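go over both lines:
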Amino acid sequence: MDRRKMLGLAGAGALGAAAGGAVGLQVFDDPPPARANDPGAAVPFYGARQAGIVTPAQDRLHFVAFDVITEKKAEVAELLRKWTAAAARMTAGRDAGAIGAVNGVPEAAPDDTGEAIGLPPSGLTLTVGFGPTFFRTAEGKDRFGIADRRPEALADLPKFAKDALKPEISGGDICVQACAHDPQVAVHAVRNLARIGFGVVSVRWSQLGFGRTSSTSRTQQTARNLFGFKDGTANLKAEDTKLLDEQLWVQPGDGPEWMTGGSYMVTRKIRMVIETWDRTSLAEQEAIIGRNKGEGAALGKAGEFDEPDFSGETIPRDSHVRLAHPQFNDGARLLRRGYNFVDGSDGLGRLDAGLFFIAYQRDPRKQFVPIQTRLSRQDALNEYIRHVSSGLFACPPGVSAADDSWGRALFV
């Protein structure tokens, strides 16, 4: 049943490269893609690109990584077909299945879990990606005969200095990024994909996020991370179409044809040592980041969007902004759409909180890897953060129409 129709009938009302590691170029040659700024609106599912990448970042996240537990290629292809159909329905504000949560026979399980009944689409986007182990397992097995289709850019990330990664919350064969303005809508989407995937995939790990930490459109104000600083001041934006072609979208000749028009996603769960940070002086906090805490301006500048001046010593050499800036990374930039998280406490009276970093790019080997290598070795912020989870996924282009599906090109 259409959730929006039900709503009407019922009469209801409707730190990776944080804090500015990018050049402030602006290119306004095309209108932005579908927006998710209206908390109740639907974002189109079909199109040349997957939604949820340059879509203006929504308020909530439910990210999940799955392990494939079958070795039957046909079962994986069929699951992706079912997932795509369910995603198209849910992003339009409908139940995951054609029968729905309450319209089936009482003796059978519903084909929708029901917790989104009465809720609008809420800007829901679902973005899928394939990890390195989808093509060849850690033991070297080519389960589905597609190892030769693994892009070279999907090379395993190296171990970075100070990594404290937990294998049980890292990696995965397939990921789904669900973003929405209502957390229940995002959780509903992931829950139903997991339900549909029973017996073919199992959940490896998942992460809830709130309070976007990046802006992906100039229609949005810059958000703040849990250290209290503005994050993503000079992030790549949906309006920067020329820069997106250069830095975000996989171009013809970059790798296998099935990835042309797609992008590569890196995830990092970054635990913040909140209690230590909160006892650090304001002056030291600002020196570590390289920006002032109020306006978000680079040190020595007045406005948030003023270009940083690295010619003197005003911005420390080990500051986060300086080390992440494209000027010191061969022009490399990322499109970030991370989220804050608080996962309760750690049992020692400390918040288990931080940043779930998500970044998209054209080639991680030339973008995320060199940037993070530099940050992991020199960043003054490292005293206050711990990288505990990591993921890398190839996100293909969008689904063209109802007869298309996620990953179809891999199985034909």
In short: The radius of gyration is 21 Å.
